[in-house]
Specification:
about 425 residues, alpha+beta, eight-stranded mixed beta sheet, five-stranded antiparallel beta sheet
Amino acid sequence: MSFIKVDPKSDFSFHNLPYGIFSTHRNPRHRIGVAIGDQIVDLSVIKTLFQGPELSEHQHVFDQPSLNAFMALGYKAWKEARRTLQGLLSVNQNTLKDDVSLRSRAFVNQSEATMHLPAEIGDYTDFYSSRDHAINVGTMFRGKENALMPNWLRLPVGYHGRASSVVVSGTPLHRPSGQMRPDQTKPPVFGPSKQLDIELEMAFFVGKGNNLGESIPIDKAHEHIFGMVLMNDWSARDIQAWEYVPLGPFLGKNFGTTISPWVVPMEALLPFAEPNQIQDPDPLPYLKHDDPFTFNINLFVSLKGKGMAKAATICRSNFKYMYWTMKQQLAHHSVNGCNMRPGDLLASGTISGPDPESFGSMLELSWRGSKNIDLGEGKTRTFLQDGDEVTITGYCEGEEYRVGFGACMGTILPALHQ
């Protein structure tokens, strides 16, 4: 369908066309690109080709160093941009295909590009929307009978995270230090976290926002969701366990959150929509929607430690396991009049499924450190060690094509504060 050859196993098929921010050694300016195969289409070079009614007077958004201005244009503009790109990349249209000069300027090899955060993230919210994960963690700390708190099945539980420490894939992070109380009979101690963990998550970027005092109704929520990324919300479990009562996560979470650089548009994911999880009890009317808005996205977490010849896959999960949908998260977030803004990042919370291999955190995989996670080569883990490289990948599988997200990778460096 495209004149650009794409390997069937590539994340970046013609059906995908994700947006990202990149630069090159020859041109260090941050600019918007679209991935296809092993190439990037530089939208700043072809901006004048976006001539539809929604974009003809807004071509300047493709000159920006972030996606915020483009996302702010709204749902109709996103759809028009996608149709234009599909046309320009099609074998049936000659504008790009036959213009050798324009093609030489418009296409960049991904291997030559440096990827950056796709948006200026004003606010970051982390939800807690996987029932399997919530039950697992609740069982560990409160027992099976009290695993879910009374409100969990009534609303999408969440907390406000720290946007300044959201980093793009490939950025190393130092092991955090803080207060912990490993021995409940003694006072707390300060030092590097000994229970550093990963959290397999996905997140979406808010596009067009809402005014302060207004809300985003559930039947319009999809018009405010621009696209999705992979996320690793690193967690220091021992710091978190001591500090989170009564107000929730703080230093145990805010030292670093990694996201993948390519934002997959929701329109590319719609063919992979699946029926939502059955919710019992019925959610309140402002949270109720019947249209499918969960997605069959295969997710994988791999870990490679120092001296390991290859990475070991420690988790195989799927986004379809989520209990609360993105539409419900956004409607709930704004129902009190909270104003959402373009570039706001809303995360799913840890994605765990019903089987042990689908547990999305080492806390669950090692069951709070009580059993080893086998990495092969005689290596095991309960929690992360310095030098560990963690990579999250994910994709939807079509007929001889994929809609994927690239990699969400980070490496743990030693603590700066002992």
